[in-house]
């Protein structure tokens, strides 16, 4: 691991690291904010999963998360959104290939060699973070859009792995919307059952009665340009209701899909995670 | 004037507008954050001047200013850093020409036709803002690096025009440092006296005994890569002491020249301005 950026920020340090990922078989970058408390104590870690087209930079430069992470003593880790590099398969559109890993493990050629973002985010990255930084094993997960899908799916697939979960404008039912259908067809093949293992609403529908049910906080802008076509939060409401999963879904008049929306509410999400992570 | 972006943010609206500037003889863009209070009352305006290479986007996407502007009921206007367009003269380096207007009125060819950022920021832009938005004529000014130079110089050259002033890592003595020497030689010619009219430390040295003296807040990172070569805050300290001008200069260990530094302290600057602008 090599540190390639370090900036003092709100009394802590916003850093970017690079490392050779064995899961993804390429070099990867991630952002990590170390709050002032991490100088003297182990801090819990909030993993943030970004949306389509993003790198590790978008969230750390635009969301204003550092102020709240410093207030609450939470480390924030923001990985890239896919494997990267000349040797990694890519596609023409912004919604498939590099920048569009969808936080799953691909089974289809040519994607299956590198596109294993689920295992990277769930296993390899926390192991690195917990070994290198003053991080505890208390983990929260959140994200935006494709990354909101990632947060929901990683939580639902890995009971006990996370202590807190939230999302901004998530893709809640990728098997039912154009972004997800395109990506899943490429990464997972045309078998519809394979897609259900990576679809939050489908995972909720098969949730065991005694499964872990964390309080789920979701914020959604009502002026979001992708609301009706790609996001469809009503499907998450239905799935949570049917499976008895707690959900606080807040709809915000006038807010769109941008980082201005995330910035306006990230403080409340950090507080939501911190309450569980410090409990 | 045409609105080209609008995003709900912290209960208000982050917008970007474009207009044909008669001062600069080109089309210009500026960012404007309208806090929730502007829906029902005239609000004072903080003008933010960005640094070398920036457009109107950098500050509005990276500084996190909107939260504080919403708390304090302050409109924030962020212009571009130079005239723009294919018809506007430019130069090879990042520190001259487009993106590097230095907030002065150029006297030398080929720059003098378009490069009149002083008059644009002091006169044309406030007239537009005060006519179009729910803005009072209470104005504050701040900025970063080249824009910190701009804030200091516009305040000192225009007594009574601003009610509050501050700067982040400003170029305080452009006639004495490489960035300023290069730009001033091009825009103003080799006459050293011409440069003194656009140099904060020189303007302080000739400040009239009865001139307006606003409380001046300046923050400077001690790990700033341009500290010793381009910024030299000790020259501002000396000039303020010699001219009896108030100055609170705060040096911050570990902080660099980036927006992570600005984001960490912009809340205190907005509070500094709001106290004067609402008085």
Automatic annotation (TrEMBL), chains A, B:
Keywords: Hydrolase, Serine esterase. Its EC number is 3.1.2.12. It is an enzyme of class 3 (hydrolase). The keyword Nucleus does not apply. InterPro entries: AB_hydrolase_fold, Esterase-like, S-formylglutathione_hydrol. It catalyses: S-formylglutathione + H2O = formate + glutathione + H(+). Pfam families: Esterase (PF00756). SUPFAM superfamilies: alpha/beta-Hydrolases. GO terms for molecular function: S-formylglutathione hydrolase activity. The keyword Hydrolase applies. Belongs to the esterase D family. PANTHER family: S-FORMYLGLUTATHIONE HYDROLASE. Serine hydrolase involved in the detoxification of formaldehyde. This is S-formylglutathione hydrolase. The lineage of its organism: Bacteria, Pseudomonadati, Pseudomonadota, Gammaproteobacteria, Lysobacterales. The gene is fghA.
């Amino acid at each position: 691991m090599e540190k390639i950026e370090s900036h003092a920020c709100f009394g802590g340090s916003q850093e970017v690291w690079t490392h050779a990922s064995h899961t993804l078989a390429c070099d990867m970058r991630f952002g990590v904010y170390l709050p002032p408390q991490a100088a003297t104590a182990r801090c819990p870690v909030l993993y943030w999963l970004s949306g389509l087209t993003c790198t590790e930079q978008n969230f750390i430069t635009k969301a204003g998360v550092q102020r709240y992470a410093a207030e609450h003593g939470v480390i924030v880790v923001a990985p890239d959104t896919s494997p990267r590099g000349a040797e990694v398969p890519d596609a023409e559109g912004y919604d498939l290939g590099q920048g569009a890993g969808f936080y799953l493990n691909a089974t289809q050629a040519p994607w299956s060699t590198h596109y294993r973002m689920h295992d990277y985010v769930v296993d390899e990255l926390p192991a690195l973070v917990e070994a290198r930084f003053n991080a505890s094993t208390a983990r929260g997960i959140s994200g935006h859009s494709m990354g909101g899908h990632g947060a929901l799916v990683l939580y639902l697939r890995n009971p006990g792995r996370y202590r807190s979960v939230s999302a901004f404008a998530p893709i809640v039912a990728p098997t039912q919307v154009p972004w997800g259908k395109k990506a899943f067809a490429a990464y997972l093949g045309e078998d519809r059952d394979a897609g259900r293992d990576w679809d939050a609403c489908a995972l909720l529908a098969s949730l065991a009665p005694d499964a872990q049910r964390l309080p789920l906080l979701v914020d959604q802008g009502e002026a979001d340009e992708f609301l009706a076509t790609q996001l469809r939060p009503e499907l998450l409401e239905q799935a949570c209701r049917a499976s008895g999963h707690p959900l606080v879904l807040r709809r915000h008049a006038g807010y769109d899909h941008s980082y201005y929306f995330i910035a306006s509410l990230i403080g409340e999400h950090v507080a939501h995670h911190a309450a569980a992570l410090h409990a």
